[in-house]
Amino acid sequence: MERLAVAKVNLGLSLLGRRPDGYHELHTLFASLSFGDRLFLEPIPEGIEFRGRYGRRNLAYRAAAAYLEAAGWPG
């Protein structure tokens, strides 16, 4: 599967306060741009294979690893 993760630019951001769960309530205004990162996803037998910049520090890698851990899948 191939998808474009469209880039955005924040035009405004306001913190409205902290929620009971510890996260902040936000009010934001952003604009989508006509470019971004192209993601290629395909199943593999186990874990994550990542080809791109920054390796395990990359946010896409970290999100996939967190998903596998939460789902109880080997990674």
Describe this protein's structure.
The mean pLDDT is 89. The chain is an alpha+beta fold. A hairpin with a 5-residue loop joins strand 1 and strand 2 (24-40). It is flat, with a radius of gyration of 16 Å. Helices cover 17% and strands 45% of the residues. It has a two-stranded antiparallel sheet with strand order 1-2. It contains one helix and two strands.
Explain the layout of strands and helices:
Layout: E1 2-18, E2 24-40, H1 59-71
Antiparallel strand pairs: 1-2
Keywords: ATP-binding, Kinase, Nucleotide-binding, Transferase
Enzyme class: transferase
EC number: 2.7.1.148
Give keywords:
single chain; 75 residues; alpha+beta; 2 domains; 17% helix; flat; Ribsml_uS5_D2-typ_fold_subgr; kinase; ATP-binding; transferase
Summed up, the helix count is 1
Q: Give the overall shape.
A: flat
- Between the first and last Cα atoms, what is the distance in angstroms? 20 Å
Share of β-strand residues: over 45%
Q: Report the helical percentage.
A: 10-25%
Annotation, overall tally of beta strands: 2
Largest beta sheet: strand ordering: 1-2
User: Which structural category fits the helices and strands?
Assistant: alpha+beta
Radius of gyration: 16 Å
Number of domains: 2
Q: Quick check: average pLDDT?
A: 89
In oligomeric terms, what are we looking at? single chain
Summarize the helix and strand pattern as letters. EEH
Q: Mind summarizing the main beta sheet?
A: 2 strands, antiparallel
Uncertain parts: none
